[in-house]
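G., before I forget:
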Amino acid sequence: MRARELIVSGLIILFFLACYFFSPKPMEFSRSTSVLIIFLLAAAFVYVFIRTFRGRFIGRRVVFIFVGVALVLPFFMKFPLPLQISPEVQSVYDALEKLPPHSKILASFDYDPPSAPELQPMAVAFMKYAFEHDLKIIIMGLWPQGPQQADQAIQAAFIENPDLKQKTKYGVDYVNLGFQSGYEFVILQMGQSFKSMFPADLYNTPYDSIPLLKNVSNFSNVDFSMNFSAGKPGTAEWVQIAVDRFQLPLAAGNTAVQAPMIYPYLKKGSKGKKQLIGLLGGMAGGAEFEKLTKKPAKATTYLLSQSFAHVAVVIFIIIGNVAFFREKKGKK
Amino acid sequence: MRRELPLAIAFIAGVIFFIAYFIPHPPFNRFENWFSDWFAIVAAFAIWLGALNLMKISFIKVIRKKSDWLHALLIIISFVIIVVIGFYEGYRGLHANPPFSFRDPGTAFDWLYVNVYSTLSATMFALLAFFVASASYRAFRARNLEATLLLLAAFFVMLGRVPIGDVITGWLPRAYQMSQWASWIMNVLNTAGQRAIMIGIALGLVSTSLRIILGLERSYIGGD
């Protein structure tokens, strides 16, 4: 069994290596090939349905193959899917549009690589938008890996739009203050003084020597803030301290798992004010933001893959339940 | 003294934070700043403490050849590599002109972060998709009313949060398309539920905090 598994794993790796070295780049299926693949997948699901209906469940490895195929193949397909803009994403975009050039944005990167596939595309889109509109970004992180994710987002934005690299200058257009330990207490302290928590930036440049941070002492000196979060400390803590206590205008980008917990902050309170301006929720939120900025990128590409995976899971749920009810009826 | 001192610290810090929230003026805001600074310092030490503890446990596992000692050895090797490279790049960056950070693109640390750490952690997280699919086929059953409601919500949200849901229901009027259903579930049902949970948690936190401040709750110092 172990030898067979090793052979299968080896063959899979060889297949992907062959695809990597010998396939035309960028590899893309024609429309007819894509339709044929979808048809074959549908036929395979019908087979699974019939098999399960007869009481013969398929093994989990087969389920894994289905999910793998549903996730990987859409990367090579080009299907323009209709993407509706949700009010939460529209609010983020509208708030950014209202900012005049040279506005200062505090961007907190509170996530790490496991959540990067979802959050990084929206971070890149945000950076591109900010640099193109001459918005100044102050980067920080409550998670140790956050500032590095921010750096990666900036580099990706520069690769996608090389003109940005020429016109943006570190220290003037953006600054990376790095990570600070202390969870929500960092936010609390920043309400009094940014410098007390970040006496120097990532390159050890003293706070007072950074041109962008001149006249920035606390939240009252930033015009907008954006939080990319995958957990705690994250958006909830920023809302509870920076927004509720210091009236910081805040928007957020969250993983799809975390987004439902953030929805209560999107509703207007008794004073008619929302705690959170808007929310980019998961891959869909990122893709919607990319659509609004008219620059479809990774989130849009990944969303097709996610769509297929969601459909696959829903079909599995339906098949499983049909078999369950049939079995239940049979017992009666 | 081993019991009284932590209790006194908890009482003083708790009372000061409580007062400073309502009266953010001297001297309370100054005390609050002190305690916040201390917390940041303690939290930074906690990171080291956690790392050193992991090393201690891993070393013991390797030396005593306990189960999965090879994994522990891998932890030690990975830890040493990343720490040494991180410090080396940090030292190099500080003395370079212009200075650079140990995690800047092009450094060895960044190479490890992008090509090893990021890819491995994303892979671990991505495995969830496969297990969820397997569970959806074998375990997600509409056995009772609650499970059925959960399944229906999952059905609408999963399809409604991706564009394919609107493709499937494209023949319906806009207000009845899948994304609208998902949006309604998230904004109404989910928000109501989340608020109830949040209020419950907040009430629990208030009572637990009060018990800690007043010294009634002593489990955090090993008491009853």
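Residues 298-331 of chain A form the longest helix (34 residues). The two ends of chain A are 39 Å apart (CA to CA).

More on Monday.
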